[in-house]
Amino acid sequence: MELFSLEERKKNTQKITDYCESLLTPVKEKEKEEKEEKEKKENDKKILNGFILVLFHWLLTGIPLVYLIIGKVNMYFYLSAAIWISIFIFHFYFKGCIITRIERKLWNEKKWWGPWMFLFTPLEKMGIYMTDNLANMIFNYWGSSILILMLYRIRHM
User: Fold this and answer.
1) Helix axes 75-94, 6-24, angle to 10 degrees
2) What is the DSSP string of 63-94?
3) pTM for this structure?
4) pLDDT in tens, 53-75
5) What are the C-alpha distances in Å from 17 to residues 6, 68, 84?
6) DSSP string covering the chain, please?
7) How many domains does the chain have?
8) Sign of torsion over alpha carbons 74, 80, 84, 85
9) Model confidence over 90-135: pLDDT tens digits?
């Protein structure tokens, strides 16, 4: 199936990040403005839009995660579970988090790990260098743990 080939997934990832960047990047202003001033303003807006995206990213992942851990098993629990299952599916399809890729592109920052920065930064300070493969492995263990937690909570409600 071509939809799941590595080339097709890379192409889809590029299309999504380019499209989101074009939505979050302001339209160029007057031609008379100096190139340097334009770039600074555009960069400032990219940074602001990136922070808005980070806030959305953290809320999208954080609120459902907290509810999965401490909330009652009800409609909101199942909605949170569906959100996290979707996150896992997208993570495997895009071989990483598509929102983190958009944030990286907006900020032109290759070392950004999204919400995982709170874990990965201390690990790097301890001498454990974070690679894409290690990050994916950690995410897979994390995902497995969340899945086990969800199943346990459903079974013992």
Assistant:
1) 110
2) HHHHHHHHS-SSHHHHHHHHHHHHHHHHHHHH
3) 0.71
4) 889 999 999 999 999 999 999 99
5) 16, 29, 21
6) -GGGSHHHHHHHHHHHHHHHHHHHSPPP--TTS-HHHHHHHHHHHHHHHHHHHHHHHHHHHHHHHHHHHHS-SSHHHHHHHHHHHHHHHHHHHHTS-HHHHHHHHHHT-TT--GGGHHHHHHHHHTT----HHHHHHHHHHHHHHHHHHHHHHHHT-
7) 1
8) positive
9) 988 988 888 888 888 888 888 888 888 888 888 889 998 888 888 8
Query: Could you give the CA distance from residue 151 to residue 135 in angstroms, rounded to a whole number?
Result: 24
The whole domain housing 116 covers 2-155
Among all chains, which residue has been given the structure tokens 């995660």? 65
Nearest to 99 by CA among 55, 41, 143, 63: 55
Contacts of 103 (CB under 8 A, 6+ apart): 50, 53, 54, 57, 109, 112, 114
